[in-house]
Design brief:
- This protein is mainly alpha-helical.
- Helix 1 crosses helix 5.
- Helices cover about 70% and strands about 5% of the residues.
- The termini are far apart.
- Strand 1 and strand 2 form a beta hairpin.
- The radius of gyration is 16 Å and the shape is globular.
- The chain has a domain of about 130 residues: Arp2/3 complex 21 kDa subunit ARPC3 (Orthogonal Bundle).
- It contains 8 helices and 2 strands; from the N terminus they run H-H-E-E-H-H-H-H-H-H.
- Strands 1-2 form a two-stranded antiparallel sheet.
């Protein structure tokens, strides 16, 4: 889902950079010292998962794991994803420096928003509802990220409409896969380390 350099217009790049900077600032402010290992772990998971990708025009399809990032880290998903993207850009020229703000925004913003929507469902006592909530969180995060990619391309140049539609359609199977992975991971965490999620009563 990384957008490559030289594709987007300056206003779109500036908008993405501003939103990403704001999200990173909030995430760092809310991150406690004891949370750093958790942030680093999920940043590493994102770093590795996003290398298994299929290029599609100016973007690519790959696992994002932003639903899990959002559920476990909240606003800290912004610095977590930013660090992984920065390392990918510097070490492997994957994505790029000029688009790092846009790429951070389109992966981290859905993670945070979907956490607010599904967190109570995922952390409730009803295990079945928790699995459903986790699946929906994982799938919705990818869907929202895909919509942002399509929007960035369309607002850069309307001639990108077909490419934007292709990118969005290509993420449909990824939504299902991410939903299943998120549900399985959250189910496991609820059993072995529920404090990571802060499981509460319904």
């Amino acid at each position: 889902m990384h957008i490559s350099e030289g594709v987007l217009s300056a206003p779109v790049l500036a908008c993405g950079a501003l939103v990403a900077a704001g999200g990173i600032a909030v995430g760092l402010k809310r991150t406690r010292e004891e949370d750093i290992p958790r942030v680093a772990l999920l940043s590493s998971a994102f770093f590795v998962a996003s290398f298994v990708h299929v290029p599609i025009g100016p973007s690519s399809v790959h696992l994002i794991l932003n639903g899990i990032n959002g559920l476990i880290l909240g606003w800290a998903a912004f610095p977590s994803i930013f660090v992984a993207l920065l390392l990918q850009a510097v070490m492997f020229q994957y994505g790029g420096i000029t688009v790092i703000g846009v790429n951070t925004m389109m992966m981290a913003l859905p993670a945070v928003l979907c956490r607010y929507v599904f967190y109570r469902l995922v952390t409730g006592k009803n295990e079945r509802k928790a699995y459903i909530g986790a699946f929906l969180c994982g799938a919705s995060s990818v869907a929202f990220s895909g919509i942002l990619v399509a929007g960035f391309l369309f607002f850069t140049d309307e001639s990108f409409f077909n490419t934007a539609a292709l990118v969005l359609a290509a993420h449909l199977p990824v939504m299902i896969i991410e939903g299943v992975i998120t549900a399985v991971c959250i189910g496991f965490i609820r059993k072995v380390k529920p404090s990571l999620l802060g499981v509460v009563d319904d």
